[in-house]
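Q: I'm teaching a short session on how sequence maps to structure, and I want students to see two examples side by side rather than one. Could you give me a first protein with its sequence written out and its structure tokens following it? Keep the formatting plain so it prints cleanly on a handout.
A: Of course. Example one:
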Amino acid sequence: MYFSNPKRLKGLFKYFGTGSALEHKTSSVYYNTDRYYDSTFSYYNWIAAHEYFHTITPLNLHSEKIAKFNFQEADMSRHVWLYEGITDYFAMLLRAQLSGNRSAAGNMAWATSTALKHSKQSMTKSAKNIIRKQNIISWIRKIGHIGNFYEKGKLIALGMDIELMERSNGKRRLLDVILEIKKNYDGTFFQDSALFTVMEKYMYPGFKDYCRKYIEGTDIPPYESYFKKLGWTFYPKNSKLSTYGNFN
């Protein structure tokens, strides 16, 4: 863990702060200003869970775009929704087991409110273009929407998980599927353009339709239907019952 003095920050970092975390195959690296330090490291509970699940994807499950990443002329994978959205979904489930299901409801409320705030966009198309800098305005807009890979990505993961549970009577979960694919691609990679075909073998009938509509397409997954199955009633951000998005 690295902690820096915020007074040493310059430029935009001075005003907006900075922080990051990276997961390597044998270590985790965290960087932040020292105002986030406390002896219990409780601030990092969520971050550590997220980074831990990166040992599954993209570290050990990824496409050729990641395995052979071109650092000279970046050619990004279309599947940031998988690398970040599904990873954050698994982190949420772990945190829920440790601190109670209410934390999952609160996080999904926040994710839903944030996803609805963003302009509708294709997860695959926006991922391909995320690194390409056309002009400063488009670059700032892209930075503002990076969170959508996590938030809409989490809704996408929730939908897949519920669909799997319903079809298997609770015997299969999304984590089971991802671990099975990871095992079968151990030491190699899938083709970026073939991920949905690969996943369909492990998922359920109609899976590709889900992908076309909510991952390649711009629609938001039918979150109200999924929440109802969980017994949750969602109150949007800035409604009379919620400031940030909430469940009852």
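Q: Perfect. Now a second example for contrast.
A: Example two:
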Amino acid sequence: MINSLIAFKGKPARIVSQNTHKFAIEFAGGELLNVREKDFRFIHPEFIQVSENCAAADTKILTDFQQQILSLQEITEWLFNEYSPQNAWCACLLVEDGLYFYWQKDKVFVRPAEQVKSIQNKRDAEALEAKNLQNCIKNINNNIVDKADLPYFKEIEKVALNQSKHAKILAAIGVENSPKTAYELLLKLQYLQPGFNPYPARHGILNDVKTAVSMAKVKRTDLTNLRSYAIDNADSNDADDAISIDVEADKLWVHIADVACVAAPDSELDLYALERASNLYLPDQILHMLPPQATKLCALGLSEISPALSIGFRLKGNEVKDIEIFHSNIKVTKMSYDEADNLLAENADLSALKTAAEKHQKYR
């Protein structure tokens, strides 16, 4: 084996000498190394200085050898017609590349055509990905957002919204993979607008989603003869409670928006509400516990007649008596606290409600 061409860790070398257990090998630069036989691969019995520049191999011939195991010499002769040191080295490089072959100890296994195609497709995809990544890096450095780069910007957005811990493109441009830095980069590139609020998404707060909403059909008592008042802040648009008084019957009424009739237990809408727990009031938006279309069905006073859950009772001395609860239909007048205060002197219902409230508050 003296003066043979071998491969050691991917580099060509010459066997200089041999003792009982080891071989002395020499590299192109003159470096000497003692190695065991199992640590190198035999390429050719004749050593020459080989080159990485290889002639085109006739890989079409491999169709006839699919899934066969051949020696390196046989592979070299089939691919390059001659088993020379240079051709053997080039055949070795092809085996190391892994597209058409792989080593089975000192022999070479020829991959089936479909496996070769699969590996090549994967390599082509990786090459395209690398090219696209470089283009995106160039565009970011020039403050350009290109449509072709959108997949990378989606990755950055996920980091900005704390939905992912890593975006390959951020590491490639030397930007820290953190929600803060990712968000600042997207603002700088005008991918996100300055008014965009990232915090709901960062904390897993769900957005409003359009979903079917309908009011369950239940038997309702007609209380439209009562004058029902929904009194709230001046900027409130969706009243959820109202009050009435029936002076003749000496009876007070509290009416509550009948949400249960659109969100029955364990229904799709009930689960929707459970995921959100409550309305979230943000500077730029409101994220609703129930879909906005549910408000249109349930809020009091948005239509001429509103469905409600009504509680009627009498105040006898300091006791609340004769309580009754049922589904109802009511007519609601909406007003602000200031408007209600201004009407107290002239509105008998409001005046009577105020008197009843003060009396019960004093007792409490």
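Q: What should students look for in example two?
A: Point them to this: The chain is about 35% helix and 25% strand. Also worth mentioning: The two ends are 108 Å apart (CA to CA).
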